[in-house]
Amino acid sequence: MLSIEDRIAIYELIALHGHLVDDGRLDELGQVFADDAVHDLTAFGLGMHRGLGSVRESALALGDANPLGHHVTNTIITAVNDDGVLVRSKGIGVRADGASGTVIYDDLVARRNGEWRIVRRAIMVHRKPLGRE
After folding, report:
1. Looking at the domain assignment, is residue 132 inside a domain?
2. What is the CATH number of the domain that holds 92?
3. 9-27 burial string, b = 16+ CB within 10 Å, else e?
4. % of the chain exceeding 90 in pLDDT
5. pLDDT tens-place string over residues 30-61
6. Which of 13, 78, 97, 124 could form a disulfide with 104 if both were Cys (CB 3.0 to 4.6 A apart)?
7. Helix (H) or strand (E) holding 54
8. Summary mean pLDDT of the chain
9. Looking at the DSSP assignment, which residues form a beta bridge with residue 125?
10. pLDDT digits (tens, 9 = 90+) for 98-127
């Protein structure tokens, strides 16, 4: 069972990602991702990225294709197991041209050096209503 304090820390961890990326503070992503994090962008055709440096480099490689705003909503903890905590969130991205899109973040969050960090993130694109791919 997670404490209320752990739940709040996990929700704030998930929210912090958007603030750091949108502000261009990519050197601070270690506050969100573990050093050995896996970042799965295969739904975008961008492959798997392993390690904190690769997560940062993938954001830099996208350049102006990155959304102006990452808005994370509907965050729920779906399971607690020996590997950590499974967290699912919905994301809305707003681009410079005003276009927007939605994704689902599936995260494995675990304690690293006493702090919660994302150790695995898979981002799935949502293109059709009612859960149809």
Report:
1. no
2. 3.10.450.50
3. ebbebbbbbbebbbeeeee
4. 77
5. 999 999 999 999 998 889 999 999 989 988 88
6. 124
7. helix 52-62
8. 93
9. 103
10. 999 999 999 999 999 999 999 999 999 978
Q: Phi and psi of 52, rounded to 5°?
A: -60, -40
Stronger pLDDT, 22 or 62, i.e. the higher one: 22
Query: Which residues constitute the domain of residue 118?
Result: 4-126
The DSSP bridge partners found for residue 112 are 115
Residue 103 lies in a domain: yes
Asked, for residue 106, whether it belongs to a domain, the answer is yes
Three-state DSSP class for residue 121: strand
Is the Cα dihedral 62, 10, 106, 112 positive or negative?
Answer: positive
Asked whether residue 131 is domain-assigned, the answer is no
Q: Is the pTM of this model over 0.85?
A: yes
Half-sphere exposure of 34 (CA within 13 A, CB side): 21
Beta-sheet pairing, 100-112 with 115-126: antiparallel
Task: Provide the token pair at 125.
Answer: 């694109």
Run of H or E residues at 17: helix 4-22
**Which of 61, 125, 45, 53 is CA-nearest to residue 93?**
125
How many independent structural domains does the chain possess? 1
